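Problem: given the chain below (349 residues), write out its structure.
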Amino acid sequence: MPQVNGRFVPDMKSPRTPDNEEPAEERAHDFRPVDKGFTKEMALAEAERCMDCKKPLCVEGCPVNIKIPKFIEKIREQDFGAALDIIHEDSMLPAICGRVCPQENQCEGRCIRGKKSEPVAIGQLERFLGDQPELASKPQMKPANGKKVAVIGSGPSGITCAGELARNGFDVTVFEAFFTGGGVLVYGIPEFRLPKAVVKREIDGLKELGVKFEFNSVMGNLANADELLNEKGFDAIYVATGAGLPKFLNIPGENLPNVYFANEYLTRVNLMKANKFPEYDTPTKHAKQVVVFGGGNVAMDAVRTAKRLGAERAIIAYRFTTPRPRASRSCRLSRRSSSSPARTATCAP
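Solution.
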């Protein structure tokens, strides 16, 4: 670790460590994780690129203000447990956030090094640590304060709230309409981008903090707000029901057979295992030619899922005449048509 006058000197010549991806021609045929994550050697090499800025804009870019330079410094020292503890001060979900957060628009988007070269791979380093939960210290818990909170929904917002409340002494119960926890993390994001085992591990970690989960519980039918507050003894309710309803195009034909909304299509595959029909009961159409309207993460997840289900042509159609990528870098647009105002592009698997 190079130092001058006792201060760390970053490696300014090293390029960004490439993602550790499976070959596209192989992963396009199954739901294996696309990115295998950094090895120890890759993490150490990437940590050397951090400039340890006096005013770390990456922290300002992080929605929860994780102390990024501090945990990277601990990675350089190979004190991975301490690095993970630093992340846990602000986020209990590093294995999830390291995979699916749009770092290029947040922490990495503000990285000073990225002004003239490639930013530090902060997300990959966060994931590297999050995939080693056994290294972390036991979370510090405040004494029970006698207050009960009901969290409605177990998606990313719900479980984040539940974890923070539990660490601060609250008695937390999470009510989830589905038969499993995770919300959009399990029904919306495919296995190749976020393995279900990772989500389950994070849910299990919350249970160890004392968070209780009630599955198959459709609130409003099972109980309303008045009943939760006045009959079941809850002091507060946090509603984290997500944004599960589709946005209609309002064009002729959108209700025809074999036209799916992405949420339904992804839920059938991700949660109900339609990709294994008839082994599982939920079917879906396995088409040879698929067009997906949209350009965000949901659209990319849908088109990449269609590719894995046997589509010979999987196409993204988006409305802008010039590319305005809204999806994270995990999907790269590789070809664009110039014959129509609505652009089309094939998508890397």
